[in-house]
Fold:
Amino acid sequence: MLRIHSLSGRSICAAAVVCVSVASAASADMLTGVTCENPVGSPVGSSSGIADYQYLGARFEFTEQVEVESVGGEFVNLYGSFFAAIVPLDSMAALPQGDPSQGIPFNPGEVLTYETFSVSQYPSPPQIRTIPLSVTLDPGVYGVVFGAGLYGTSCNSVSGMPRYHSIAGSSGFFWSSLWSNAYDDQNRIQITLVPEPTTMGLLAMGGLALLGRRKADHRRRRST
Structure:
């Protein structure tokens, strides 16, 4: 299981996720934090559908309080209006509760936060789309869920997310009349965290130290 640590040495994320990137905060168009992704294997060659009351999700576990900046996913041939939601879970094996007997995916108050977004036509080949979504999460396990049919969203066709084979640590799940684990139909689903101030300060100090060493090395080369 991969653990993602801050520069202060504390473990931030204990889920078996992939650390995708640490992006620079120099550009407003770039993510400013650590992006974690559901681990996936090789492509299956088809897509999992997102439509009205057909959702796709993945689990993430955090060992300390974190600030979420955005969520994201890899989409293909996507059009309609959709939601991205974060739901607390009891464990890395748990699923959202809801009331499947009544066709209800989430119980009242079960969704911590959500954001809606519209897509007129998402191009092929598949691309990652990032949805800004700000929330503070206490230590625990959470599901990031994409779907349509709630919060005023609608998609009547089965638009999709590319499918991948499961590997160790894959944590996908889905809703289609009830919640189920995605045993061999994984999707690239991401969550991006705002870096803690201590980490940003250490990153800046590290950059200044590196710059100082380079200048010193340059002076020594010139003097020899």
Q: What stands out?
A: DSSP finds one helix and 15 strands in the chain. The two ends are 49 Å apart (CA to CA). Confidence is low (pLDDT under 50) at residues 1-10, 21-32, 198-216. The longest helix spans residues 197-223.
